[in-house]
Amino acid sequence: MKLFHKTLFLAFVSAAFFSCKKEYPQADSLLSDARSFYASGHFAEAKKALDSIQKVSPKAFSQINAGLALLDSIRYGENIRIVTQSDSLLKLMEARIEQQKRLFTYEINPKYQDKGCYIPKAYPNSMAAMGFRSGVEADGKLYLESVADRPIKHFAAVASIPGGQRAETKAVTDDGANYRFQVEGQSAEVVRYSGKRENGVAAFIAANQTKNITVMLKATSPTSFTLTAQAKRGILDSYTLSRLLTTRDSVRFNLEKSKRLIKYLDKKRAKEMARKAEKQLTE
Q1: Of the candidates 217, 190, 193, which has an alpha carbon nearest to the alpha carbon of residue 203?
Q2: Among 4, 129, 185, 257, which is 20 to 30 Å from 67 by CA?
Q3: In sequence order, what DSSP letters do the residues of 158-205 get, joined into one string?
Q4: What is the Cα–Cα distance from 41 to 50, expressed in whole angstroms?
Q5: Cα–Cα distance measured from residue 91 to residue 14, given in angstroms and rounded to the nearest whole number
Q6: How high is the pLDDT of residue 273?
Q7: What is the C-alpha R_g of the chain?
Q8: Residues of the chain with pLDDT > 70: what percent?
Q9: Least confident among 111-115, 156-160, 207-211
Q10: Full-prediction pTM beyond 0.85?
Q11: For residues 231 and 121, is the Cβ–Cβ distance under 8 A?
């Protein structure tokens, strides 16, 4: 009789197990796909398959829990890859940045400045009476400056090419970015555009090096001039250096972020292994 009940119990458990497996075939298939994708290093596809389990079978708790455990392994693999790729990329970028810096003079006044600026060597020693120039701060922030030889009180600049395409800075009205002064009786004013105020004008000029570019300074009485080859080249060099510096900093940030996540996952895995070992000892 006992043998009969034991056999009946095992048959019931087996039936329940297989009915459960049949109940969520899509979840089983997706979990299997996720494991295959993970094993082959296709981490994005693996996560997509795991996300789909809960959507197609929200009550497949066994498969969902197995997917959560697999997700940590996927994240670990992803971030190991990011660290490896970022280390290689940073070496290449540092070499490229040093090469680009040779096109600049680094200027800083230690008495008044904590960090200096990279000024393009493409510019002549003295600017024209009317002009447009650029520079890059040590942290990679690009700026443009429009220069006027008389007090026109301009507040924005528009760069345009034949055919009507144009790019315009945002208006600058605060005194912190407007400089108006006199040198030996000659009036001059400089307006600086950086951050959102630059508004893509540097990229526009960088992309149109072979075309005639006209810059109009917006004021009560607007004035216009054609950018010189040196001015266009200086802005292109500044734009390139700025992109390199900011991209490098972004790669560095993501690298450190990945290293922190790997450290967290290592600690989490160690705790889980310790908990399992302790459980085995108490059984």
Answers
A1: 193
A2: 257
A3: EEE-TTS-EEEPPP--SGGGEEEEEETTEEEEEEEEEGGGTTTHHHHH
A4: 15
A5: 58
A6: 86
A7: 31
A8: 87
A9: 111-115
A10: no
A11: no
